[in-house]
Amino acid sequence: MRNSHKNCEESWAQAQKFIPGGVNSPVRAFKAVEGTPVFVDRGEGSRIYDVDGNEYIDYVCSWGPLILGHADARVVKAVSGAAGRGTSYGAPTQAETELAKRIVGAVPSIEKVRLVNSGTEATMSAIRLARAFTERDVIVKMAGCYHGHVDALLVKAGSGATTFGAPTSPGITVGSTSDTVLLPFNDIAAAEELLGDKGNSIAAVIVEPVPGNMGVVAPDKKYLAKLRELTSAAGALLIFDEVITGFRLGLGGAQKLYGIVPDLTTLGKIIGGGLPVGAYGGKAKIMDMLSPTGDVYQAGTLSGNPIAVAAGLATLEAVSEKGFYAQLEKKASALEKGIIKAADKAGAKIFLSRIGSMFTIFFSDEPVRNYKSALAADTKRYAAFFHAILDRGVYLAPSQFEAGFVSAAHTDEDIAKTVEAAAEAFRVVATS
């Protein structure tokens, strides 16, 4: 069980005085589960340690980038070496080209790639490029898929299943979202209707091939292939947002796993090895529309930052080693089976959704296929489970609607301890 979290509480009080909501990204505030956020002092391997000295097996892994675990020696060495040569140049480096070369060699759809500073920036830029290439305005996204805090993509559904979106956040104008249309994820009929009727006005369909921001949701067997078929027929681009899934589900990401080649792909997280980074790439004829070879403008002072590039290169070299993803799958599978068995024994109704090393424990007795069914999950039970397992030294995502991640640093002992903690937490929830 956890020791005192007095220092976390004091840190939380201080943070709220100087930072809006006390955090620099909303989900960290524990609003969805309530209670005091964990203030991290350091990370090592599969563990994080809070400012009170409590130790946790970490399945947040910085929301996905840390596929090698915390403070991996190879990444630390690369970062230290790069920092010693300079933190930023605002000029080209050979390392940028090497990272781009590795990405192009691994991701099926990418012939050329540009580095940026975040997944949000990558998505925003890819949409601009898609509109320029097609000379069309409308962007289609799926309800429940998150593509960063881009104004045009922070939308909620209107009255119909297929509808132009309304702004989700204050500060976003109706005009910003007036060319964004929402569809339900995994709904082929709705996609067929929209692309069939209005395809000639659509610049691109953007989708997380495996959503991770309504919790992990698997695409139905024919869904992604149908989106590829429909966009091609309509002359629209298909954008895969692989900020989470890129190099997470394998070297080629979800597109290689499912055998689909999108026109543009956005990346982030793992390609920076835990440092701020993003990228977008695709066919050369599309990417060459970017300035300075074309007229589509996008720039960034810290794009291709040498420290982030060094961390990314070290990470991609590590995940390219033979058997890396097979071992990751073995660990994630053992975790899945153990948690399901523990839940069954405790009489807890859960649906554990897992693709590769991404997973979500939904407190639902029905499969989760889309945003609507995700929202039907019991968030109060998840919150109770979250705190019960946190008290037993396991750190999961502080929200029902986020992904958990298994890293190469997680050991068989970690998995066994997690399953044991989950069994106890399920019993707590069942009797509460």
CATH fold-level name of the largest domain: Aspartate Aminotransferase, domain 2
What oligomeric state do the depicted chains represent? Answer: single chain
Count of helical stretches: 14
The percent range for helix content is 25-40%
Strand content: 15-25%
Low-confidence stretches: 158-163
In short:
Helix 7 (223-234) links the parallel strand 10 (202-207) and strand 11 (237-241). The strands form 4 sheets. This protein has an 8-stranded mixed sheet, sandwiched between helices. A 4-stranded mixed sheet has the order 1-2-3-16. The protein has a 3-stranded antiparallel sheet with strand order 14-15-17, covered by helices on one side.
Structure commentary:
This protein has 432 residues and is α/β, with parallel strands linked by helices. The chain has 2 domains: 6-71 and 322-431, Aspartate Aminotransferase, domain 1 (Alpha-Beta Complex), CATH 3.90.1150.10; 73-319, 3-Layer(aba) Sandwich (Aspartate Aminotransferase, domain 2). Helix content is 38%, strand content 16%. The chain has 14 helices and 17 strands. The strands form 4 sheets. Strands 4-13-12-11-10-5-9-7 form an 8-stranded mixed β-sheet, with helices on both faces. The protein has a 4-stranded mixed β-sheet with strand order 1-2-3-16. A 3-stranded antiparallel β-sheet has the order 14-15-17, covered by helices on one side. α6 runs parallel beside α7 and α13 (379-390) packs across α14 (412-431). The longest helix is centred in the C-terminal third of the chain and has 23 residues, at 324-346. The chain starts with 5 loop residues before the first helix and ends with a helix.
